Amino acid sequence: MAGNPQVPVRFDRVQKSFGPVKVLEDFNLDINPGEFLVLLGASGSGKTTALRILSGLETASGGRVLIGDRDVTNILPKYRDISMVFQSYALYPHKTVAENIGFPLKVRKVKAAEMDAAIREAAAQVQLDQLLQRYPRELSGGQRQRVALARAIIRRPSVFLMDEPLSNLDAKLRGHMRAELKHMQESFGITTIYVTHDQIEAMTLAHRVAILEKGVLQQLATPAEIYNDPANLFVAQFIGSPPMNIVHGALQGETFVAEGHEVKVPVKGRLDKAILGVRPEDCSVTTPAKGDVMGEIFTNELIGDHTLITVKTAKDMITVKAPKDYRGKTGDKIGVGLAKSGLYVFNGDGGARIR
Ligand SMILES: Nc1ncnc2c1ncn2[C@@H]1O[C@H](COP(=O)(O)OP(=O)(O)OP(=O)(O)O)[C@@H](O)[C@H]1O
Ligand SMILES: [Mg+2]
């Protein structure tokens, strides 16, 4: 499926309100030609609304959307050259798999022979070639999702929009389909905007991730940048599992001070309310004398290739990713070592990153 020119997509100061409720506020986002962009955010953050505005199913209250150099803000959905995959699949129950996949071509009055060939090609791409005569009710969730995908790719649109397309699948199938989607997007090179609330999907699929919170873009960056260099406390805690630990305290010069401990940090400033962030893998268990932070073991969970130790400090809980053979008991007094390279400091008011 070659020959489709790769186009950029732009949200330009898009606003959307439903009555008094502001869902998108001054939403700006530039997506590169051929990019796989993942829009990540919690439920209700405005992800679907953004996709629906781009596809034309919803009108913006303000701002513009552009596909290529075309301002499509006031153009009907069918003229925007977009394919969308919905979370619900939205298959036609009384049409076979073949008829479902071929539908976008049928409405465009493509000739039967040409349509037949295209259906076979699209079906083969998602490994549905053996199931063309079945009806949706005779398919598993994963197979239905692949029909929806085939229906989206058959038309070689300029832009793919996908709204949580894997969320109805079980974990194993989701992992499998994730790999297939990534491969498909790479080989088609079609600009894709993929919506999810699943950080693993975002990190594994995206060229870049856009993190949305309450209708406001928090950060737009590659998965590695988002993980290693979060813009603020929200992003820092949204990405990573288990999430980044936080300790409440104050910043005094280059020292972070919390009840019972002082930690040298790689930033400088003076804040009465500051938050120290450190990921579980940048923490280690040690003796109370050697630790940067002291506490006692609260829980101990063997995960498989590592053990998660939750340590209760004066005011906070800190999760430590420890070796799988670490033997510590609940109530043991221990120290937690913090890797200097893994320390982040945030403003305790609002969560801005202190650099
Ligand atoms: N047609 C509508 N009328 C009124 N409010 C709406 C409408 N559509 C969405 N909203 C509200 O806008 C906000 C954002 O909704 P949206 O569907 O974009 O969120 P989302 O990020 O896709 O969430 P989810 O992950 O749950 O799908 C929500 O608070 C929702 O209740
Ligand atoms: Mg949604």
Give a quick summary of the entry.
The chain has helices at residues 47-55, 97-106, 112-125, 141-153, 171-188, 199-205, 223-228, 233-238; strands at 9-18, 21-31, 36-41, 62-67, 70-71, 82-85, 159-163, 191-196, 208-213, 216-221, 245-258, 261-278, 283-286, 293-302, 306-312, 317-323, 333-338, 343-347, 353-354. The chain is of the alpha+beta class and 355 residues long. The strands form four sheets. A six-stranded mixed beta sheet has the order 6-7-8-3-9-10, with helices on both faces. It has a five-stranded antiparallel beta sheet with strand order 13-17-14-15-16, with no helix packed on it. A four-stranded antiparallel beta sheet has the order 2-1-4-5, with helices on one face.
What distinguishing features does this structure have?
single chain; 355 residues; alpha+beta; Rossmann fold; OB fold (Dihydrolipoamide Acetyltransferase, E2P); 2 domains; six-stranded mixed beta sheet; five-stranded antiparallel beta sheet; 8 helices; 19 strands; elongated; binds adenosine-5'-triphosphate; binds magnesium ion
